[in-house]
Amino acid sequence: MDDDTRPEQDHVLRDAITLPLLIIPRDRRTTRVAATARRPTIPADALEIVDPLPVTEPDQAVNTSPDGADRPPVEARARRGRGGSRVNALWTVFEQVVSSGTNAAINFVIARRVDPTEFGAFAIAYTIFAMVVGLSRAAATAPLGISYADVPLGAFRSAVRQAAGTALVLGAAVGVLLMLVGVGMGGTVGTNLAAMGVIMPALLVQDAWRYASFAQGRPLLAVANDLVWAAVLGAGLWLLATVAPGGFGGSATMVLVWGMAAAVAAQVGVLQHQGWPQPRRAWAWFTGHRETTGFMTAEFLSLQGAAQTSTLVIGAVGSTSLVGALRGLQTLLAPTTNLAVALMSFSIPEFSRRKHLPAQTVLRGAYLVSGLVVVSSTLWGLAFVVLPDGFGAALLGDTWAETHQLLLLAVIAQAGPCLAVGPAAVLYAFGRTRLTFWINLAFVPFLLACPLIGLLLGGARGVVIGNIIVYWATIPPWLYHLHRQVRLGARR
Question: Distance between CA atoms of 333 and 319, rounded to whole angstroms?
Fold first, then answer.
């Protein structure tokens, strides 16, 4: 199966260094808050006016941060976070399974119902969606987990409406462009592009509601929303198979059914978060959080640009079988990335809510996170190393032989970015997006050069060895800046 079955799979290894997750250990020793700790600035015009929480007893007093937003009492935040963090993490993982399954379902159904040429046309449109949804998360919803993880409910809902409105504007702009290009191109590719343009706003808004649920610490809302999407999609495909001549129709028709199901789920998100998207506030939202949205958007574009350019160059210089083997590696190792993506959505707001913890506790949490990702990804990869060749051939066909030769090296390469997950999570949660941008940007030239040099010197194995070098070289900067920022925060 084509590895474009999930948005996250288009950058399985190269930008995994930006995929944080979190399970923070319980710590009962402190309830202090550094009142002068730096926080990402929340623009005054980005929030609705909310009455301050009443102050009754000294130990229940509302904490006010430098950005002016009232916070719940420290003890209340600690009790609320410790009790449900691990359960929420598990629900977040389950949500990613449902979300990825819904996206995969449309790929599987189309692949089985149309010829390879038409599926290729769909894959082009789906790849564009995968890129745009990543851009939407960077430009629209990222501030929710960083700056709004512990604000009052009214302020959070106001922020969510503006973030969803920003996603809607981006979806509409990209959608119109895709429709114009699709109509101009014509043919199967043009039809699929136009269909993807029609549904793009619904896809991005539904994803915005999902991220808002994670930022609020209520992943069950996202699970319910994705289950609605899956149910409506199943019903729509069944109806299409029943009434369409020849069953199902073309790929563009199935894309529209997929988008219709997303639109229904987006409407459910309106009910869940008790408000409609506010597209008129999109520009104010983006510019008001430029420290987050600007740098994360630039970071996403630079990493994706390096990843896609490297793939194109390797494909032009190397053989078709080499490209197939590398894509086979992506397909086999994709589930570990999906796990990281799921827990990333959970981890950033959880770390953000726990900035008051001692430095050693935060560092221990970051190392625990990285360790969990490394162990899970390594075990998953090694399982394919030791499995019989017949099993691998059943999954990848003729591509398996070359993929299997590279798999152990790919597991070693993948461990590098996995080690950086914990430090990256903390830096994002602390609002250091400018810093993370420069860390990633410094390695973009190496992401381009190392695999290509490896290809010229050692063929397929050289490509993966080049990845090992650049991925593991990122670890010292992440660890250095993690310790530095945590220590600075503890002294404030």
Answer: 22
